[in-house]
Amino acid sequence: MPSTLDATSATTSDAPAQASPARALVCRGCGKEYPLAAQHACYECFGPLEVAYDQAALARVTRAQIEAGPHSIWRYAALLPAGQDPASRVTLDPGLTPLVSAPRLAEELGLRGPLWVKDDSANPTHSFKDRVVSVALTAARGLGFSRFACASTGNLANSVAAHAARAGVPSIVFIPGDLEPGKVVTTAVYGGDLVAIEGSYDDVNRLCSELVETDEFEDTAFVNVNVRPYYAEGSKTLGYEVAEQLGWRLPEQVVIPMASGELLTKVDKAFSELVEIGLVEAPANGWRVFGAQSAGCNPIAVALHNGVSEITPVKPVGIAKSLNIGDPAAGLYALEAVRRSGGWMDYASDDEIRDAIQLLARTTGVFAETAGGVTVAVLKKLVESGKLDPDAETVVFNTGEGLKTIDAVAEQVGPTYRIKPSLRGARDAGLLGG
Amino acid sequence: MPSTLDATSATTSDAPAQASPARALVCRGCGKEYPLAAQHACYECFGPLEVAYDQAALARVTRAQIEAGPHSIWRYAALLPAGQDPASRVTLDPGLTPLVSAPRLAEELGLRGPLWVKDDSANPTHSFKDRVVSVALTAARGLGFSRFACASTGNLANSVAAHAARAGVPSIVFIPGDLEPGKVVTTAVYGGDLVAIEGSYDDVNRLCSELVETDEFEDTAFVNVNVRPYYAEGSKTLGYEVAEQLGWRLPEQVVIPMASGELLTKVDKAFSELVEIGLVEAPANGWRVFGAQSAGCNPIAVALHNGVSEITPVKPVGIAKSLNIGDPAAGLYALEAVRRSGGWMDYASDDEIRDAIQLLARTTGVFAETAGGVTVAVLKKLVESGKLDPDAETVVFNTGEGLKTIDAVAEQVGPTYRIKPSLRGARDAGLLGG
């Protein structure tokens, strides 16, 4: 069933579909090119494939064209590998999430330049995964897939199940059998198939890689396996949005959480594209990319600190579960982007993550999941260590919603007063003077 | 400290502030008018006060002016009592939440006309309360208040605490002492004062009404007490948005959850205003307003069913806690709007609410809190009883986020398969044919 990409196959509108600017899949290792199909690894060198674009097509895109588009990632459709025809989209219309000015956070951290929080908890299922899932499933339907799947423990599962429900397409989501009930509910409620596997997340991933090769799953798109190159491109929209929301400028510094490392590389790619096609000018000294991990899962940051170009996988621990990928697929590319840009990486302990969630909430009104705590905690460390220029403009990314990881701070915060239900009770507690 | 409304008092921009179209507070009971101050009840008849507008000012508002505004409730600032000057706003910029087309939900319910879900879980703290809090706190700052407060058990507390954190203004939120830890965390994390009261929600409310009269709380705006008239107007934006998102048309039927009943009356008011000032035409047969309650708290619907014009307070029970107001302040006005429009009201049991949450999620990808389940369950009943025209265009309102009330459906949904981590396990479960 999987065929080459035909964005018009699901078209129900009479309007002619714009052409996709994507022209090929290209191996990040050896550079070999492949047609736009459901393939994620190079047959020659087993390197990961990435979408390559017709640069002339990208260069025709204008700011006015983007600004006239919808209030979602699809305003950037002309820079994406799928979704040019609105009727082809499998989507909850994520994106254009708030870029929140954070002067009080800046002040507490000792930053004198402008600081912004890009708050992706505002997406429909409250994480940045809605971006990548929308692009992956739109590409998948164009490629002829008729069932959507993923292996996940949280945000990705929510997003795939919700997208499938909106589109009326069957889904099958694979999760570890010991997942917390709350996380099971937020995927199961959408009514797709939900397979609990007696094993770890690594076991779940391994089984999905086997299932994708079977006849019974031939019609099934696993968003982060067989259509991964399209999936990964969805993260570019975070970079585009930051540039547009700053008035078509790039920030001088970005601080980005790393799981596979792909989000970081794609934001960097988005900035490069915007400069190449003339939609923004690069800052005088370029932009610098900073990566954030937790102490419980820090293989990319450790490689940077050790000055090596090889990543030693770890067995992840700690509360920042949505970032816990011990063998990060795009880690080397993230290292490369950070080194090239003159940035840095660091990692934060669970206690630092908890403190940073509260710091962010208290100073900006943004309640982040643990991944957002990681990023703010690392921002703090980067300021303290002098790696980050306190006078430059900085954007820090919150990729998820605090409601999904409430337990992380449940011991830290609570009522500041406990009183009896009377004015006397209020007075005794000091709320009414003496 | 509270003075008459001066929308420019917090202005930090050089741009001249637009004038507010609000001209007075007017008693809904006897019609007596008062200046725009921090007052919520008539000194003559103790009736509730409502904002009255300069109709000539409203009539100057154009579609183009609104469409050129920000992607938030503030595009309607010229129709609101506060926030005309962007610098005066105390806000997380809520609004313009998705109007989701729901053809599969319509089909399951037997609706042949277009069905839409207005999804207010997309607001910054994930409920419609962000709308009313933004308007209330903006008015409050204009009136000179320097601390923000509320009594709440959930959504309102989250929103007030987050707004105060964003604005850097002190807040003090009052909650019942036995609140679930999860709900405490989602307010406490923003770092304001949080007062747990040894008593019921009614006790909390009563104490707040007493505190608002004390010297120590003279500088404190309780959003749903002393600045309530401004607070209530924020709900109009839900009506404006539906009209604009339908292409400047009104739907023929709306189904709205009722707690105090105010949301329903304000959506109806918004529709009336838009017709009066010429921004939309009324549908040929007008619009019909339907109200939804839970069986555990149904005083307004029961009054309608009994054909009376007096509401008998109840002691609320049941899972739809965000709607559990046993003595609804705007209940009579909601009754009046529903009767005048030719609509109806009904109520749903906890089991029906649970089923409706799943139905909505499965057919639209929208995961609602229990209040959204109430509304969809009542929509279903209204179709079955023939009260709702299945051929007319209908909008159903989801006012909150499923992540906040996960326990409601935790027993109902779960994995559809449990397997061992191997292809054999998948085969044994029937995922791989025979």
From TrEMBL, chains A, B:
Entry keywords, A to Z: Lyase, Pyridoxal phosphate
Cited InterPro entries: Ser/Thr_Dehydratase, Thr_synthase-like, TrpB-like_PALP, TrpB-like_PALP_sf
Positions carrying N6-(pyridoxal phosphate)lysine: 129
Entry-linked SUPFAM superfamilies: Tryptophan synthase beta subunit-like PLP-dependent enzymes (SSF53686)
Single annotated GO MF: L-serine ammonia-lyase activity
NCBIfam families: thrC
Signal peptide interval: none
Enzyme class, UniProt record, top EC level: lyase
Pfam (any one): PALP
Chain ranges of the Tryptophan synthase beta chain-like PALP domain: 91-400
Protein species of origin: Phytohabitans flavus
E.C. code: 4.2.3.1
Needed co-factor(s): pyridoxal 5'-phosphate
The keyword Lyase is assigned to this record: yes
Similarity section: Belongs to the threonine synthase family.
Name the record gives this protein: Threonine synthase
GO biological process, one term: L-threonine catabolic process
